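Much of our argument rests on the idea that a fold can be written as discrete symbols. Part of our work consisted of pairing the sequence of a single chain with a tokenised description of its backbone. The amino acid sequence and the backbone structure tokens for this protein are reproduced below.
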Amino acid sequence: MTTEETTAGPACPLSAGYPSDTTPYAHYARMDELLGLQHPLSSARTEPGFIIMSQVKELLFKLLHTEFSTARDQLADDLLDDALWTLRRAARVQQVLLVSWETFSVLSPVEFAEFRDVLGSASGFQSAGYRRLEFLLGNKNPAMAVPHRNTAGYDAVVGQLHEPSLYDAALALLARRGLLTPDDATSRDATRPYRAGAEVEDAWRAVYRDAVRHRDLHLLAEALMDAADQFARWRYTHLVTVQRMLGAKSGTGGTEGVAWLARISDHRFFPELWSVRSTL
């Protein structure tokens, strides 16, 4: 071992091998490629910001998918403490995602109109990352995979449709704890949203009514509610932002715009955690 290795430690492979036309930081995070992915199609000064924040949202969707997938797998392995810590991280990401709408909401209708035509049929409705996230949390609908047919993301979207959701993993944990009758997961259609019904609400009621005895499950219930609450706020903020930018106009890509967003804003993930509150 050389003196240099003894005093400074072994050389970092990345630092030793990065290209001469960049820095270790830019090479590690592929910053040059990332910052070269913005290609406005109009002369509108607000279009670059629209593109960048759209890309930021997609990156946050990807990060949330990673965190919620990790939490689901940890619950499946009875690592509840680890899952709670993962959900804590995910909550911070959701907060950033919610705030991202602020940059869109300050676009005036005239500013958005300056580049709206260049979007063509492009719409956030077509986001494969967001669709996978919805499926992962339990809001499964095979019809929602159809818009992604013949795209690079189709297999990932359909694959997510057939995977257990985060809510599936939470309910399976309740069953292992004796609060739910075991579910025959092998006979249940994986593309259906999740196990639902009065028995599920009863199980969550038992957790809430004896939060001391079921302390870790109570923490899980509230962590899931935090996630569902943040998504409800995200949807509502999306609705208000579009109302502010478009009024009652149709959305991009031929969607109904505000009318469609108003309908989906009523959806809640983990519905029994919401309904049980009326009974406590």
Q: What stands out?
A: Confidence is low (pLDDT under 50) at residues 1-8. Residues 15 and 23 are 8 Å apart (CA to CA). The two ends are 67 Å apart (CA to CA).
